[in-house]
Amino acid sequence: MVSNSNFMKGLVSTVHTSMVGLLMGTFVLSPLALADQGDPNGANNLPQPGWGLWFPRSQATGANFDSGFSNSELGGFMDFEAFCESAGAGAETNYWFRLTTSLYRIGTGSVEYGCWQNGRFVTTNSGRAILSGETVDCLYVRALGSNGLNIRAEPSTRSRILRTVRNGSRVTPSAYPAIIQESEGRNWVEIRSPISGWISDDASTSQGNLTMCDR
Predict the structure, then answer these.
(1) Residues 91/130, Cβ–Cβ less than 8 Å
(2) Least buried of 10, 114, 155, 179, by fewest C-beta within 10 Å?
(3) At residue 150, what are phi and psi to the nearest 5 degrees?
(4) What are the φ and ψ backbone dihedral angles of 187, each rounded to 5 degrees?
(5) Which of 18-27, 39-48, 65-74, 177-186 has the lowest mean pLDDT?
(6) What angle do CA 207, 6, 56 make, to 5 degrees?
(7) Hey, which residues does 116 pair with through a beta bridge?
(8) How many angstroms separate the Cα of 16 from the Cα of each of 13, 69, 140, 175?
């Protein structure tokens, strides 16, 4: 497992609360990440929906996430690095990473690495990511624009409704990292309490329907 630690100490700045910053993708870890036309964030320094900004890989040790949970993921990352080297883009300054906004909201998300050369990514590699040193066993329902969420038998809006939970309710993921399945443009999280089933965290580009209970 690839381990990283000590995120929130002096690396994060935002004009609102930390949760707003996370949901809107406005965190800035370092002046090195401030974008110009030569880096992946573009001239306007804006993240893509559902993702945070790109940062130099040298800052990954401060981002408080773990990744590399299987031999296939680790092997894929090694292949990624080998391809970057063979393409002449393997210098440390060419490596960048970004994280999905769901990581700091529900404890499970994705990390994407890329090697940047001559104004483009030569190649990228994606994998699962979780918060370091935590086991997220409680998620809080806060579905914006509705009173709550349906728990369904399968990850689909066409599946049978098992129960409805109102905003403010707490649910327990079935595992950590959370088991997340994309279906019908939504991310579905498998839960085991208050009843086993699937609950929608909405589209990856949204602010989500769930957040960690202690945030």
Answers:
(1) no
(2) 10
(3) -90, 140
(4) -95, 125
(5) 18-27
(6) 70
(7) 121
(8) 9, 33, 21, 31
CB 93 within 8 Å of CB 111: no
Tell me how far CA of residue 208 lies from CA of 102, 125, 183, in angstroms.
8, 24, 15
163 pLDDT more than 90: yes
The pLDDT assigned to 91 comes to 94
Specify the range with the lowest mean pLDDT, choosing from 3-7, 96-100, 122-126, 184-188.
3-7
Partners of 117 in beta bridges: 120
Q: Structure pTM?
A: 0.81
**Cβ distance 102 to 108 under 8 Å?**
yes
Q: Which residues pair with 98 in a beta bridge?
A: 112
Tell me the C-alpha distance between 136 and 108, whole Å: 9
Residue of 58, 134, 54, 140 whose CA lies nearest to 99: 54
pLDDT digits (tens, 9 = 90+) for 100-119: 999 999 999 999 999 999 99
pLDDT number for residue 39: 87
Residue 15's pLDDT is what? 24
Instruction: Give the CA distances from residue 85 to residues 3, 40, 58, 71, 194, in Å, rounded to whole numbers and listed in that order.
Output: 23, 19, 17, 21, 49
Would you state the structure tokens that stand for residue 9, as one six-digit string?
């100490």
